[in-house]
Design brief:
By secondary structure, the chain is of the alpha+beta class. Helix content is 44%, strand content 14%. It has 12 helices and 9 strands. Helix 6 crosses helix 7, helix 8 runs antiparallel to helix 9 and helix 9 runs antiparallel to helix 10.
């Protein structure tokens, strides 16, 4: 392995979750799951999301889990019952969780998010105060997975968060380790934009599809960028790895063309880095295009940018334009790795 993986390890260290905050998030989720099992009709609980998949980056903001209800106690609830929406039962669950959790965390509060109760704790650990999101779920009469709520739309939607965790924790030790590192790096790349284009789970689904046994972190990351750009270029949406929920959409505010451009630019930069893996300056320059918030441009690139900024502006005269208004000056076009950056 050459400089590419060295630089990626440095980025991985920069985004690594704090151990104490991570342990606190796990403890808080365990507490909420334990209390949730005292709710009327509780069938089982589960852990889900980045915490269960071992792909959390700093800062540690939340821990995800779910409570599956026994349908016998709620015959009117959900699409397989009387069609009752999830909002009222979610409010009752929140009323149970809040007071019980405050026995351990006096400042805790229970509100709701899109999928169910959201508990905040008011007890920072190393300046991080992870919350817990508890999805309220029902088993499905036909088909695999669960019915999970969309409280904003007052409806139920099919998903299989337990299967997602199973899939992402499957494989050999080496494959799991590489895939988790690739996901963490891809999440850091994605969040460099004010409007990230892909959800964390979307990136996890891409990694599940494209990271193969025997790949290094660098080649796995390239495979995710390249495969994602190519697939989105077909006009299709990424399928749910569990085959239960609808295909995954891009985040609001980011078009397909912009997302393809971002992924393709990152894939090309990774190709460049791997092609010059024994040249540190070339690798640094290529990876700066992928991880601009984490990898500085090499001194040669910085000098070139400074020289470009000092070039004289090109005047456009009113005579050449046939105008009588004062002349203007247009600054030289700024280039970034030969491509326009979105």
């Amino acid at each position: 392995m050459g400089y590419t993986n060295d630089y990626l390890r440095s980025v991985g260290s920069a985004i690594a979750a704090d151990d104490a905050a991570l342990a606190e998030a796990r403890g808080r989720l365990a507490l909420v799951r334990k209390i949730a099992m005292s709710f009327r009709g509780a069938h089982r609980t589960y852990a889900s999301g980045s915490l269960a998949q071992h792909t959390i980056n700093a800062p540690v903001t939340d821990g995800d889990g779910g409570l599956v209800l026994n349908r016998i106690y709620y015959p009117q609830l959900g699409p397989d019952g009387g069609g009752e929406t999830p909002n009222s039962v979610a409010a009752v669950l929140c009323a149970l969780l809040g007071p019980e959790i405050r026995n351990t965390y006096p400042n805790a509060r229970c509100g709701t998010s899109k999928r169910g109760p959201k508990i905040t704790f008011g007890a920072p650990v190393n300046d991080q105060d992870p919350s817990v999101d508890l999805v309220l779920a029902l088993t499905r009469r036909d088909g695999s997975g669960l019915w999970i709520p969309n409280l904003h739309m007052q409806r139920w939607e099919a998903s299989d968060p337990e299967k997602h965790v199973e899939l992402l924790n499957d494989g050999t030790v080496a494959l799991r380790r590489t895939r988790r590192q690739v996901i963490r790096l891809a999440k850091a790349w994605n969040k460099q934009w004010t409007l990230p284009g892909l959800s964390s789970f979307h990136l996890s689904a891409l990694a599940l599809e494209y990271v193969a046994p025997g790949m290094s972190v660098a080649t796995g990351l390239h495979a995710v960028f390249d495969g994602g750009a190519t697939f989105l270029g077909t006009g299709c949406n990424t399928p749910d790895p569990a085959g239960v929920s609808k295909p995954l959409k891009l985040m609001k505010g980011v078009s397909r063309d912009i997302m393809i451009h971002r992924l393709r630019a990152a894939a090309d930069a990774m190709t460049d880095a791997l092609a010059h893996d024994d040249d540190e300056a070339a690798v640094q320059s290529a990876l700066h295009k992928v991880f601009r918030n984490y990898v500085e441009a090499p001194a040669s690139d910085q000098l070139a940018a400074m020289a470009a900024a000092l070039r004289p502006r090109t005047p456009i005269t009113t005579v050449s334009l046939g105008l009588s208004t004062p002349a203007v000056a247009i600054p030289p076009t700024r280039a970034y790795g030969g491509r326009r950056v979105l």
